[in-house]
Structures are given as structure tokens and as C-alpha cells.
Amino acid sequence: QVQLVESGGGLVQAGGSLRLSCAASGGTISSYAMGWFRQAPGKEREFVALINWSGDRTFYADSVKGRFTISRDNAQNTVYLRMNSLKPEDTAVYYCVATYKRRYDLARQASWYDYWGQGTQVTVSS
Q1: What is the largest CA-CA distance in the chain?
Q2: Which of 20, 36, 72, 119 could make a disulfide contact with 48, Cβ separation 3.0–4.6 Å?
Q3: pLDDT per residue over 43-86, tens digit each?
Q4: Pairing mode, if any, of strands 120-125 and 10-13?
Q5: What integer pLDDT is reported at residue 31 of this predicted model?
Q6: Beta strand pairing status for 46-51 and 58-60?
Q7: How many angstroms separate the Cα of 3 from the Cα of each of 6, 14, 28, 52?
């Protein structure tokens, strides 16, 4: 059983950057695909990014590609999301997710993931 705890959220100006962290406990993440979802007020939960178990494959939503970078440090049991060139529309609660499954074609479906963090708030001001 894996517990996921996000950190690094906060308030930033448009055009600024944040680095989110997700620390895992209760197990190791080396065999898990890890990712991020987000949910803005009044909007559905949406896929943001995914990194596979070995870190050699990544997937991004079109809305964040080129601005966000997902990475992982299996030795530290941590996954990161570097967010650059932030826009007000990036404002949301960001959730760390994990799964032992390998059907990456299903990665955009929230139900595919086995573990969820509690979320961290990111607010981008104009």
C-alpha cells in the first residue's frame, strides 16, 4: 500500500514557475507509473502528465506540453512536476497519482490509477 503526499503548491504570478513534489511512503515507486491530475473550480478532473516506471517515457496533456516537465527520483521515492510559464488557467488543485498497470493508452482516465494524493493548491494570478 502506497501513500502519496504532494507539496510545493502556492500562489504565483502569471509567467512564473513552481515545482511540485510527491513523496511516496509505505512502499517503493520503482515499479509504478506516476503522474499528475488537476481539477479547477467548475471543471472536470483532467490528466496533466505521466512518467513510466523507469523514467524513459513521458506523456503530457497538450495544454501543458512545452511548459511542464515530469520527472522522478526512485531512490528518493519522489516524483516532481516542474511548471514553467504558468497561466491563470493552470489554477487548480494538483493531485499526484500512481499505478502498477502498464496500459498507458488508458493514462488519461482517472479510474486507471490505484493511488491518489490529497492534492496541493496552485493559484496563478494575472
Answers
A1: 40
A2: 36
A3: 999 999 999 988 999 999 999 999 999 999 988 999 999 999 99
A4: parallel
A5: 87
A6: antiparallel
A7: 10, 32, 10, 18
Q: Measured between alpha carbons, how far is 92 from 45 in angstroms, rounded to an integer? A: 9
Write phi, then psi, for 57 (nearest 5 degrees).
-135, 130
Give the pLDDT of residue 30. Answer: 83
Q: How far is 44 from 38, CA to CA, in rounded Å?
A: 9
Which cell goes with 82? 516542474
Instruction: Name 22's Cβ contacts closer than 8 Å, sequence gap at least 6.
Output: 4, 5, 6, 7, 34, 36, 78, 79, 80, 81, 96, 117
